[in-house]
Design a protein that fits this description.
Number of helices: 18
Distance between the termini: 55 Å
Number of strands: 0
Structural class: mainly alpha
Strand content: under 5%
Oligomer: single chain
Order of helices and strands: HHHHHHHHHHHHHHHHHH
Helix content: 55-70%
Largest sheet: none
Shape: globular
Amino acid sequence: MNLDIMQWFDFNVLIFMGMSLVLNGFIAYLWHKKFYQKLGLKSYQAIQRIHLNETPRLGGFIFILSLAAFVAFSNTNESIQSLKMILICLIPIIIIGIKEDLFHNVEPAIRLLALLFVGWLFRAQFTGPLPVLTDIPFIGKIFLLQGGISIFYILSMTAVANGMNLIDGVNGLCGAVALSILSALLFLSYKTSDVVMLSTIFSVILILIPFLIFNYPYGKIFLGDLGAYSLGLIISMLTIILFGRHPEISPWGAVLILIYPATEVVFSMLRRMVKGISIYNPDTAHLHLKLFHFFRPQPHYKKMANALVTPTLSPLWLFQMIVIGWVYQKPLFIWIAIILFIAFYLILFALVPNVQKNK
């Protein structure tokens, strides 16, 4: 297979990658100089916060702004049209997310409704083929019911977006997970010779990279709710679009690619229900926070405890990117890979001690 880079790479994206780099650095500098105090913005207070210094949660806003500018100033083609449709669908969570990232006063239920609305908008706007799910054992018949497939995709997108938001707590983790998922989708686009998806996904990756430079290892800027939710929704939409375009790939491959954020949100909900606490309430029992509180008290790791979490969890967030190339054509092996991931996640969660109890 020989795809000419000129067929799918839009060199204009490098300009907006540079724009993202400059804006991330500028915002990080302003917060370092405590400019947020002049604007009357309150410091971020949450029990899951682990940063001593006030850190801007505007990385997601910069990412979306740079992506939107790239779309606005690029020549219209199928890739740009897909990105434009995705950005339009994101408007509700952009409005709610930026308000939460600046003022920290949006109720969890409102954020949930915004995510569901984004999912509904995507189903209303997207006219391309959807992944074939009716052949899935046990639950396939549900998708034949009126509205069944739409409800499934809306809830799935909401779950992945929430999962991405849950892991946006330590330096580099949310961005690394997004990069791994996008890389897995990029690989499948290449293997299927899908020039449109190659261009779309690679553009998103390049515009995301400047954020990662400032986010890891020193945590100069964070995605915030807008960024984490938007990234979760974008990777969900791109996954749906790609697997819909290529029915020859098992839809279970999509589950494997999105397994980390999906496992995080499902396990967190189950854990909270078992403990009898609201699923809306934040806590410090997430795997990445348990690892941070495990590293933090140790003298050798104290100063770099935050930065250690993402590489320690690399077997989880690299899993889908590495495994998909071996199993994407073999449904049985995809199921085995999904089971192995969940088993490894649960074992790791059980092995990491609860150094800090939930408040």
